[in-house]
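Shipment paperwork, digital attachment
Item: protein structure file
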Amino acid sequence: MPFKDRLNIISIIESIEKIFEYTKGYEDADQFYQNSRDFDAVLMNFIIIGEMVNRLSEEFLEDQRQINWSKIRGFRNIVAHDYFGIDAEEVWDIIQNHLPPFLIELKNL
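Attachment content:
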């Protein structure tokens, strides 16, 4: 893996780990959403993840087609451009159900 891609993957992993740290102790989306500081911090890390995906080389993205990179970019765009339309339940679902296997996959690259 090219050095630049490796650095971007490390940044994505760090952002995912921060998201897990910021959501520790919450039992559901409503409880999480009520803490605007943690909610905003998580959204910022989703933006960072999307930005790091945008910096990955086309060759790397092509080699790792099992990951839905366009969906990750798309969610970054929703968070960045439609902040007030963000569904806390969707964010919570992504954190609980999609980030854990994504993190494992990234760590195995």
